[in-house]
Amino acid sequence: MTFGNTKTEKTGTSTSDATETAHIKSVESLDQSNEMERGLKNRHVQFIAIGGTIGTGLFLGSGKSIALTGPSIIFVYIGVGLIMFLLMRAIGEMMYSDPSQHTFINFITRYLGRGWGKFAGWTYWIVLILTGMTEITAVSTYFVTFFGTFGIDLNSWKWLIELCFLVALTGINLIAVKVFGEAEFWFSMIKITLIVGLIVTAIVMLIIGFSYPATHIEGVDGTVSGATVSLTNITDGFQLAPNGWMNFFMSFQMVFFAYQLIEFVGVTVSEMQNPREVLPKAVNELIMRILIFYVGALIAIMAIVPWRNFHENSDGSFGSPFIMVFKYAGLDWAAALVFFVVITAAASALNSLIYSAGRHLYQLASDSESPAMARLAEVSEHKVPAKAIVVSGCMILFSPIINAIPGISGAFVLFASAASAVVIFIYVLTMLAHHKYRQSSDFLPDGFVMPAWQVLDWIAIAFFVLVYVTLFLSADTLGSAIAGLIWLVAFGGYCLLHERFQNRDLKEALPR
Known about the structure:
Blueprint: H1 27-30, H2 42-53, H3 56-69, H4 73-97, H5 105-112, H6 114-148, H7 158-175, H8 177-208, E1 211-212, E2 227-228, H9 232-235, H10 245-258, H11 275-284, H12 286-304, H13 321-328, H14 334-367, H15 371-374, H16 386-396, H17 398-403, H18 406-439, H19 453-470, H20 475-509
Antiparallel strand pairs: 1-2
Helix pairs in contact: 2-8, 2-11, 3-10, 4-10, 4-11, 4-12, 4-18, 4-19, 5-6, 5-18, 6-7, 6-14, 6-16, 6-18, 6-20, 7-8, 7-14, 7-16, 8-12, 8-14, 13-14, 14-16, 18-19, 18-20
C-alpha cells in the first residue's frame, strides 16, 4: 500500500537513529501520483492563511475574552499565537519535504504508524464535519440577525438559508481549486478591510482625543458608559489577572479555540503553485498577521472602550466590540456592517471546512482497502475529489435536521464541543510526528527547517496538554473534555489494536 500519494516502502515509524539525511526531491518527481491540479496561486495561499487566523470569534467573541481578564488578554493572544506558530512551523517543515501530500495528517501515519494515522485521519474528518455543521447553523443565525437589523424576520427560513449556502459553497469547491482560492481571497479581503477600518478609526480617535457619551449598543444590556479614547484606558490600573487567576488561565483555552483552523493552509500544499516558495512565506508571516489582526484589533478596541465596560448580558452573551467601536464613531448601521462581515467569516470557515473535509475523505478512501471507500478516491475532470466533497457536504446537511429535533440537538451540541477538544489530540500527534521526522532519514537539512526542535516540540506539546487539562476546570467545557477523552481511549485503542492484529496476521501469513 502506498503512503498518501507518494510511492514509498515506509509503512511504519522511521528509525530514530538514522545516520543519513535525505536529499531534496523535485516537486515534479514527488507529484507523479498527485492527481490534483496546482491551481492555488501565491495570493490565494497568502489570503487563505490570513483567513485561517481570522474567525467569527474575533468579531463577536473578543468582548467575552476582554471581560474575562482585561488588557492582559493581549499577552494571552501573543503567547497562544506563538505556540500555534510552532505547530505551523512543524507542519510547514514536513509538507516542504513532501509537498505532494494532501494533508499533514499523512505524516502521523508515516512517523507514528498506521494505527495513529487511522485515528488521526478519521477523527480529523469527523471534527471537520461537526464543525461544519455548527458553522452552517452560525451562518443562518447571523444571516437572520443581519436582516433583522432592517426589520426583516427570516427566522422561519433558516433551513432554506442553510441549504442555499451549503449548495453554493459545495458548488464552488466542485468547479476547480482556483475558484475556491478566489472565493477565499475575497472572503479574507472583506474581513481584513473591517479590521483595518477598526484600527484606523482608533488611530484617528486617539489623535483628535475623541469623547463619546453613554450610549445604547445593539446586543448589550442597558447603556454603556461614555469615555474618552486614550491608551490610558488600557494601562490605568493594569493587572495581569484582575478577575482572578482562574479566569486568567481559562482565557488560554478560549483564545486557543479562536486560533483553530490555523493549520488549514497545511491541507492546500498539494494544490499550490510553487509550494516550496509559497509555503514558507505563508507560515513565517503568521506572526505578523497575529500581531496586526488580533493584537492590533484588541489594542484599538480597548483604547476606545475601557475594558471594564464589557459585561455579560442576562442571557450569558457579550456585545460585539466591533459594533461598539463603529457605533461610537457615528455609524448608526454598525450592527448591520459587522454582521455582514461575520456572515462572510462564517461562510469562509464553512467553505474551508468543505474543502478540507473533501481532501481528508479522499485521502482516507485512497488508503482504505474497502471497495465502497475506493469509489470516493477518484478525481473529477476538474481535478478535484468531487465525490468526497459531495459526501462531506451531505453530512453537513444533516445540521438543520438535527437542530429541529430537541432531544438530539442537545447531544449534538456536546459532540460538536467535544470535537473542538479532540483537535488537541491531533495537534499533539502532529508535533510527535515532527519529532520523529527530525530523527529520521527523511530529514532535509536544506529544507524549511524549524530551529531548536528538540525543545520547541515539547513546549508545544506541553501547552496543548495544559489547554486540555483546563477543559476539566469549567462546567461549560467539562462534558466535552470527558467526551473527548472517551473518544481517544475507545477509538484510539481500537485503531491501535486493529493495526497490531493486522500486522500479526500478516507476519503469520509470510512463509517461514
